[in-house]
Queue: 3 jobs
Job 1
Amino acid sequence: MKKYKYLLKLVRVLGIIAVYFLVTLSVTAAVENNFDDDFGKAVTSQQSELLLKKYPDKGKEIVPKLESKISSEISNKGFGNRFVIKEIMPQSGSTVSMTIGQQGEDLIFLSEFSSDVIPMVNNLSSLFGDYCIHRFAGRVQLNVGDGIYTFISEENKINRLTFVLMPAIGYVYLRGKGKIILKDGKEINLGY
């Protein structure tokens, strides 16, 4: 009789565990399906930003699409009231996207998303071509012309301070949170 009661309890426990795993798997599948549907429906940059808030764990998939959408919107509609550094203009070079960090005096180029490309180059200007997207990790100083621009970004990689180099416009703020210290010392907060 004791064996029977023990086996009955064991079967109940195993049944509860099995139901738990089935529910977990179906919920996970539903969330994945919802994300795929929402991701496919996100046409504008605002919809993609909302998607990023709804699915922060999907940043690796959403951020490159979002950056591309914002860049296209700027190309098609203009930069509007977005912050622009007109002194930082595109150079001859490839169109790449990357994250820029700094250790000491050295700039570090990181590939954080599948769309990121960091070519082997002999000079820095080749990383500043038309439509290049630059995300900043931490505090980064860029020496441009006769001054230094300091970019201070949040460490969260899905909300890094991000700029795009637009021909005939300059270095246009795309998205993310952080602060810029201009060469004249003026501080600009973005994304807050």
Note: DSSP finds three helices and ten strands in the chain.
Job 2
Amino acid sequence: MPLLGPAAKRLRLLYLGSDEWYFDQIREEYLKRAYQPEDIGDYNLKILRGYAEADFEYLGQRLPGAPDFKEKAYYIPPRLQYQPYWLEINPRVASFSTFRLYHWLKNCQHSDTKVNTNSIHWRNYIETQELEEESYQVLAPFRKPDQPAELSQETQAELDFQFILNTPGDLISDIHLDYHLVEHLNYSIEDHRPIPTFPGGIKIEIPVLQWYLSCKIQEWVAFGGERALEKGQFISGFHSHKQFKREFYWDLWEDLENLRAEAVAVTIVTCALQKIWRKYQTTLREENLWD
């Protein structure tokens, strides 16, 4: 039985801007490409990668022979020195080091950051449909799901209790996303649940949450989040359909265990620094009294 007009239209609207739509766009783009890169052999590919790795390690130091030698200081995209716990890459597509290097060069291209020409050749050579599909897939944790993730029984009980106690201004959506360099980033996360807590119900302080989210923003940027954001905003404006948007999102309640551990660690460090600063100020005042 053929679909009626309104039903077909609804299916079309559900499809536009969906993950399926984005994957189809990647496939169509590669179908349109009328060339296949010539096999340059493992030796030459290794040499090209060496240039890319040198750019990744040294760009910004303006060393002799580097692309930024004698250049004024300019923006260098984030260079992560670790693999985030949320990042799961299909090893048949790319290793972590290759995936990280590829996206760093893509971010350099996006920000007009100058790199060696051979680095660009390496990036273009390894770029495939499978790599682009994987690149879209790994950012799934940063896309708001249609339904909140299922939480553990203990976490869900804490969240339910916070809903009962919650007061105005204590929602995740009230946290301003700060400490980042991303233009046109959403002001806050679209999450109207209460602010997460430590065990015992004490709310995690907003500055700590802002710092934690800024770390997640940096990881998101490092693997193409900012590029996805700008692309989604452009397509959304063209189609007048907000479903295309790929704004930054992070589920703090689903990530509660890691959030608490990092919050405790940064709080301890902050208290230690404050103690050192107070001791320094006291010593300085005492020295001034003797002058």
Note: Residues 148-288 form one domain.
Job 3
Amino acid sequence: MPQDNQPWCPFRPTANNLGSIAQDVAEIGAIQQKAMEKNNFLAINDPSSPADNHKDFMDVLHATGEAAGAEVPFVGDWGAYNSLNLIAEQMEFGKALKERMGLIKAGRTLLHLTKQTSRTFRSSTAYQTYWTGVEEIGGTAGKFTFVPVQDENTPPQFRPGERYLSEEWKKRQLSGDVRFLLYWISYLNEETTPTKALTAPWEEDHKQLAGNVTFTQANPESEEAQLWAILASEMGANPGNWIHDKGDSIHEAATEFGSARKIAYRLSQEGRSALEPKWYSSVFETGQIGSDLGQELKRRREVKRKADHMNQAP
């Protein structure tokens, strides 16, 4: 453990800060719509962030939307893992990124993103390690990481099929509980646990076990499981659901990037008319989906089904 630990200074935004950040992320609705029209996803599971700041991350999202659905002419649809169309999307992505960032910065960002997405591309299961962003808990900063009880991730089969990670997870949870170890990685200093250079992964040797997280055995085709799945898709990773201290007195993220993410997420929710938090606030206390919430979730499921909306990536 490094000996030169430094005090952590949380980001406490003013009204002007939040207004400026909101302008920076205002295009999220248009980006979201363009990406969703082609069911486009950027599959990243990595200990580092795609970009060092929210402005660069908006450039990445913009390029993702611009590249959505790019295809090689005359090839047609080969289904999942269409290598040529994947290359076409990457070319369009790189072109759009260069127009926003410039050649050198875009090239550096593209290399970083390639490294990040390769983890998912090489995975046969979604039962793998996950990391949160930088969060404030009880006056200190850190990240949570969810670690499988045992590593079972191997390279996938050639062209494993559409939504294969989701299907593998369903089979896994049908056969038994899915357990993770929950670790807390505390902030040490900006060199080893950076809160500004977000594309750099954190040193984790000092992580501490905080608990266990279990996805209990369930039949994914059951009505109850489907209701929970719909609720999860509506809630997403809403930063507003974080409680930073016992009194719930801290209402903004502890980093500028986190503040931008919260604002962007709110705009995204408004743009897709996501379920308002008041509908599911009681779930955190009771662990139950009430009848009114259940009916609303079923209604939303039907609306999305008719609109051919996709809730899950491959």
Note: Residues 83-101 form the longest helix (19 residues).
